[in-house]
Amino acid sequence: MLPVQSEHCEAETFRASCPVSTVIVVRRALYGRMRLGRCVLRDYGYVGCFADVVAHMDVICSGRRTCSIRIPDAMLDRANPCPKDFKTYLLISYDCVPGVLTTRYDYVVVKLLVAYLPTALARKVMQSVSSVRLSVPLFFTLSYERTDL
Domains, the chain, ranges and CATH? Predict the structure, then answer.
């Protein structure tokens, strides 16, 4: 399955969902004024300013079946290098990969096939969670504290 890619302008909500037995893995996430298009209509000299926000979107979405974020978002705005009076947008790409999501007390454990994750993304996902432990060679387990229970 090909990654889902979408743009989300100000006053829009990004929503991702995956079928049963699969979870979201964020592949790419940029926030700013990447190019002219649906969200940025005119170039006032600041097209091309953006921040890589994949780590933030990993925390919100990766390892879950569904997630959503309203644009603008306070955390994304703090990472935004563009002048604050210009409209920005989120460009995001994600996959649904085979995984098992189980809830134990206030922890979530997600098992993902390592084969689906590029090394750089796997490192970013591992850095964005509170603890990581390896299990069977083809799988890794991500554990992090749930704040929404």
Answer: 4-145 (2.60.120.740)
